[in-house]
UniProtKB/TrEMBL annotation:
Residues 162-185 are annotated as: Disordered. This is Exostosin GT47 domain-containing protein. It is found in: Golgi apparatus membrane. The chain crosses the membrane at residues 12-30. InterPro entries: Exostosin (IPR004263), Exostosin_GT47 (IPR040911). Its main location: Golgi. GO terms for molecular function: glycosyltransferase activity. It comes from Lupinus luteus. It is a single-pass type II membrane protein. It comes from the Eukaryota. Keywords: Glycosyltransferase, Golgi apparatus, Membrane, Signal-anchor, Transferase, Transmembrane, Transmembrane helix. Coiled coil: none annotated. Belongs to the glycosyltransferase 47 family.
């Protein structure tokens, strides 16, 4: 009896093994995407060998220490002294958002790899990137269906009732789907740079869950995401990242909570990428061309203010030559004579009507701290201003729409909805209200109206119903609808103390700035991971970090700003960064790494005279570029930073040429150079 049982058991076992092997061979032969999952069942705990593309683990690394819901790797695997902050699962609200806490299969076609410039499955590079970044938690870059031009997104039907993701940025809202991954939507995003005119040809990345959907892959949420210019990033909290297969077609990740960043080849498609970048000199040309040719909507009826604007333009274009003005250092301006005359005419002529309609907190409710404080400070000072504000709208050259893009998001965005539709509808209703109550919007279609918005969503939220308005935007991106000659670039200012916004102004003298370059910040977007990939812990002169450990009043960060020659201003999710103004505030020469970013006050300031602007593709050359700058030129740059500094300071009571007046001047200047009168015969 025992022998018979053994015989039956042996045959059954052999039969089971045969079926399993047949299934595996079938998957391999057909190159189905889940074959690597099956293979991983037979390859656990194996160490990678030379020439192998398989990396496996069934638990935490033997070098990892798990403590308080953190995973801290040893020295070679960690991000150094910042590891606890990077890997901590306890994050501040609205930061480091996480969408899904599952594994996925990332399927990369060979055409995709070629077009996007990835390392061609350089195993060690990708694994090192995973090790180095640790538990980085970040938000996928996606957008509402109304924002396809902004993000290059094409929404698909999904399993959350047709809703779509929204874009996120620093201090973002929500953790959609963190607790309900099964409800995660499907979306498709295509590259908006090399394939802007032919999105159907854009390569895609497909990420499928292999955790809860292992037995029902057809139900798995699908993510198809592109790079934002030269790379893409798919992020999750990383605890134990396991590469079960790595080749030109497939990267399969196992375990929950992981992050992988694929860094592009340094010199791949440089000609294509370079052609997509608008340089500062090209921006200046576009600005001059727009002032020569761009005209706003012709008014439906004539007004005395139109003639006043045309007269101001003539006087600015024929401005008297300025020599040795003690308040204006000529070398930092595009044309100091035109700027001075324009500013004088603004003080003498400009009248602004501020609409009183609308309820708090979205309207008439400024906030004065944080990275979006520019719009709040401007609102506060504009509404309280007695010099420019008029109660007679017939005398107004400009009409101010006093809403806060940040308050709009806080008040109306529904976490987990992944839609901006209600925010856009609110602004539409607001415009309908003022246009029904007043005739002034209808006279120009809103062309003499302006808004000030610093939140990243402001460009896309205002492009439908406020597209003719003058938009002062922090997110001033050439590739995302910024219109030269109409829109203005709004400085993004990080205000830490609302009572004393200029506290701790200044920094060490040039001779006491011991660090060549400094950067610290969260890994938002694709540029910062590349920056850290090349420079973190690579050179003692380059103080390049992830997020610094917390300190009272952010003392560590400020100390580095004050003691470094150059402060790296690398873009996050969007082109803008508060570091540009911070660098000027602490008298550190800003190094702007953000392709297609329109710097603030470009119509007035000559940014190349006091800042260093580097293309994203040149990040590997960063140090060589900086050390090639002669000491004499650095001293000149730093001196000019001090000269331009007063244009970027907030004051509780505005002073001449400060940031409040400079923002208003940008809006005035664009209005003057786009003004047009009604045709003859109009009433």
């Amino acid at each position: 009896m025992g022998q018979k049982f053994v015989s039956i058991f042996t045959k059954s076992l052999l039969w089971l093994i045969s079926i399993t092997m047949a299934v595996i061979l079938a998957f391999q032969y057909l190159e189905l995407p889940y074959s690597n999952v099956l293979l991983s069942l037979f390859s656990a705990c194996k160490n990678p060998t030379s020439g192998s593309s398989t990396f496996n683990s069934t638990g935490p690394s033997p070098d990892a220490e798990i403590s308080n819901n953190m995973t801290m790797f040893n020295q070679q695997n960690s991000v150094g002294e910042h590891a606890p902050e990077v890997v901590s699962k306890t994050t501040m609200p609205r930061e480091n958002d996480t969408y899904l806490r599952t594994g996925f299969v990332l399927e990369l076609g060979t055409e995709t790899n070629k077009s996007l410039g990835f390392y061609e499955c350089n195993n060690s590079s990708i694994v090192e990137s995973v090790k180095r970044l640790g538990n980085v938690s970040a938000t996928q870059q996606v957008g509402d269906s109304g924002y396809n031009n902004t993000r290059g997104l094409i929404p698909l039907t999904n399993c959350s009732g047709g809703e779509n993701f929204t874009s996120k940025s620093e201090d973002r809202s929500g953790r959609p789907y963190a607790n309900s991954p099964g409800n995660a939507p499907t979306y498709i995003a295509r590259s908006i740079r090399p394939y802007a005119n032919s999105p159907e040809k854009a390569p895609t990345y497909i990420a499928r869950s292999i955790g809860p959907y292992a037995n029902s892959p057809e139900k798995a949420p699908t993510y198809i995401t592109p790079p934002s210019s030269s790379m893409t990033k798919v992020s999750r909290n990383i605890t134990n990242a396991v590469l079960t297969q790595l080749d030109n077609k497939t990267i399969s990740m196992k375990e929950e909570n992981f992050s992988i960043i694929i860094v592009p080849k340094e010199n791949h498609d440089s000609n294509i990428l370079a052609s997509e970048v608008t340089s500062i000199s090209e921006m200046n040309k576009l600005l001059l061309q727009s002032h020569a040719s761009y005209r706003s909507v012709r008014p439906k009826w004539s007004s005395a203010v139109d003639q006043e604007l045309l007269q101001a333009r003539s006087e600015i274009e024929n401005a008297p030559i300025v020599k040795n003005d003690p308040n204006l250092y000529a070398h930092i301006y595009q044309n100091v004579s035109m700027f001075k005359r324009s500013y004088e005419l603004m003080e003498k002529t400009l009248k602004v009507y501020v609409y009183r309609e609308g309820a708090k907190p979205i309207l008439h409710s400024p906030f004065l701290t944080g990275i979006y404080a520019s719009e709040g400070w401007f609102m506060k000072l504009m509404e309280a201003n007695k010099r420019f504000v008029t109660n007679d709208p017939k005398k107004a050259h400009l009409f101010y729409l006093p809403f806060s893009s940040r308050k709009l998001e806080e008040a109306l965005y529904v976490e987990g909805s992944h839609s901006h539709k209600n925010l856009i509808q609110y602004l539409h209703d607001y415009v309908d209200t003022i246009s029904a109550k007043h005739p002034f919007w209808n006279r120009t279609g809103g062309a003499d109206h302006f808004l000030v918005g610093c939140h990243d969503w402001a460009p896309s939220e205002t492009k439908l119903h406020m597209d003719k308005c003058i938009r002062a935007l922090c997110n001033a991106d050439v590739k995302e609808g910024f219109v030269f000659g109409k829109d203005a670039s709004l400085p993004e200012t990080y205000v830490r103390n609302a009572l004393n916004p200029t506290r701790e102004l200044g920094g060490n003298s040039a001779s006491k700035r011991t660090n060549l370059a400094f950067f610290a910040g969260s890994m938002h977007g694709y540029v910062r991971p590349i920056l850290l990939h090349h420079w973190e812990n690579k050179d003692p002169d380059m103080k390049i970090f992830g997020k610094l450990p917390k300190s009272k009043g952010n003392r560590n960060y400020i100390h580095y700003m004050k003691s470094s020659k150059y402060c790296i201003c690398a873009k996050g999710y969007e082109v803008n960064s508060p570091r540009v103004v911070e660098a000027i505030f602490y008298e550190c020469v800003p190094v702007i790494i953000s392709d297609n970013f329109v710097p603030p006050f470009l119509e007035v300031l000559n940014w190349e005279s006091f800042a260093v602007i580097i293309m994203e593709k040149d990040i590997p050359k960063l140090k060589s570029i900086l050390i090639s700058i002669p000491e004499k030129r650095y001293l000149r740059l730093q001196m000019r930073i001090k000269k331009v500094q007063h244009h970027f300071l907030w004051h509780n009571n505005p002073v001449k040429y400060d940031i409040f007046h400079m923002i208003l001047h940008s809006i005035w200047y664009n209005r003057v150079f786009s003004a047009i009168t009604a045709t003859n015969g109009d009433k």
